[in-house]
Specification:
There is one protein chain. The chain is 26% helix and 14% strand. By secondary structure, the chain is an alpha+beta fold. The protein has a two-stranded parallel ribbon with strand order 1-2. The longest helix is centred in the middle third of the chain and has 10 residues. The two termini are 18 Å apart.
Length: 76
């Protein structure tokens, strides 16, 4: 496990792939105190549910078309 002193005291930042309705993301936030900062989902009903629970979080959409160089990293 990496021990990054610069990140101590900050919540874990999570990028969510194949997010579905966000059940796993909710559990991760609850268990770790983390913060979901973006998600990736293409299923319209799932996107609506996820966006309802995490308003303002960007959906990257189809991961095969994401420019990963422009995605906000979870360690910054």
């Amino acid at each position: 496990m990496r021990d990054d002193h610069s990140q101590r005291g900050r919540p874990l930042r999570v990028g969510s792939l194949f997010s579905g309705y966000g059940g796993l993301d909710l559990a991760v936030e609850y268990a770790t105190g983390g913060e979901t900062i973006w998600f990736s989902e293409i299923n319209t009903p799932s996107i609506r549910v996820f966006a309802h629970h995490w308003p303002g979080i960007p959906n990257l959409g189809d991961i095969t078309s994401v420019d990963w160089a422009t995605v906000r990293p979870w360690t910054c």
